[in-house]
Write the structure tokens for this entry.
Amino acid sequence: MSTTVARPASPAAVVALQYANPSRMVSIPLAILVAAVVVTSGIVVALSAHGGDGALESNGAVVWSIVGFVVAIGVQAVAVTFPLALALGATRRTFTAGVLLTAVLESALLTAAALALLGLERVTGGWFVGARVLGDTTLGGGDALALVAVMSLLSLSALTAGAVFGAAWIRFGARGPLVLGLALSAAAVVALLVLAPAFGEAGRVFEPWWLAVAAGVVVAASTVGTAALLRGATVR
């Protein structure tokens, strides 16, 4: 008599579970990008009508509108899905890997959408009113490669950072994200105080690849933190 041992769910299965909610993972993020275009274009029209500068070279509309929701996606990717994933056979390790893979795919989706919108923005001359939304200087000033780099690194960092806060909630309840947030804020303040004297020199020698390194550190630290927190978490 042979015994069949069920195989743990793979990271790909965890990704499929995440995208079982297409509204959260696809529809709403894309709608936010489109809304940023509409709102910014409306602001340009309003400024132009009152004699203001309609160009809005650097407004950060996409960055500020999408980052908060992307962090929320990361939180929900862990807090909402973890119990169900384990019930369906995922191990904590495969779940963490699946969350990271989800972050990579979601980042690719948002980056591809932003790139497509940049193309439309160029074709329409700034959405017919001279608006620079995807061509904003915070997103590379219209450079497609820069946009890809900024959007992919920004969204990947935000998603994985949200995941570690979701893991803190799973592990410690409501006080977990609170304590984690306070600890990170305190660490950021101390770092700013220590590094403040070097800001002037750093600004003179700054290289864009520093941001890529910083994003890599955030992704790696968040993934390790998520795995560590989930290792001792109780499924509720």
The longest helix spans residues 92-123. The chain has one domain: 11-172+206-231. Residues 11-172+206-231 form one domain.
